[in-house]
């Protein structure tokens, strides 16, 4: 008799645990918080995206189905980003462009490594986080020279 009671309690616990797990999954499956990648165009709703057509907005990359969609997006980007995110889509982070500058002439900015056109010193990654073109700002070994 004792074994039946233990078995009944164990079965009841298992049923409750499984019921709780399935209830937690339901919101995610219906878009209530599951992170999913963007697969459709926010302008031409339902149209599949072409990853070669995109716009970066506030650090997020938004993809479109055709070249006609980015101009429409730029007219009201908040509307389209909200529409996408309300569907549970997590937009990709837009890559940060790397900028290079001269340690002696910070006004010199280029989009690739090279030499300063003023003093021929090697350019280093720009470190000003407030600049939209700035790089990571990390210290590169051998780039800092103390006198």
Could you characterize what this model shows?
This protein is α+β, with helices and mostly antiparallel strands and 147 residues long. Helices cover 31% and strands 14% of the residues. It contains three helices and six strands; from the N terminus they run αββααββββ. The strands form two sheets. It has a three-stranded antiparallel β-sheet, with helices on one face. Strands 5-4-6 form a three-stranded antiparallel β-sheet, with no helix packed on it. A hairpin with a 2-residue loop joins β1 and β2. The C terminus is likely disordered.
Total count of helical runs of at least 4 residues: 3
The low-confidence parts are: 19-32, 128-147
Global geometry: elongated
What is the overall pLDDT average? 74
For the biggest sheet, the summary is:
3 strands, antiparallel
Report the sheet-strand fraction: 5-15%
* Terminal-residue CA separation: 88 Å
User: Can you write the helix and strand succession as a string?
Assistant: HEEHHEEEE
Strand arrangement within the widest β-sheet reads 1-2-3
Q: Radius of gyration, rounded?
A: 26 Å
Helix fraction by DSSP (H/I, runs of at least 4): 25-40%
In total, the number of strands is: 6
Structural class, by secondary structure, is: alpha+beta
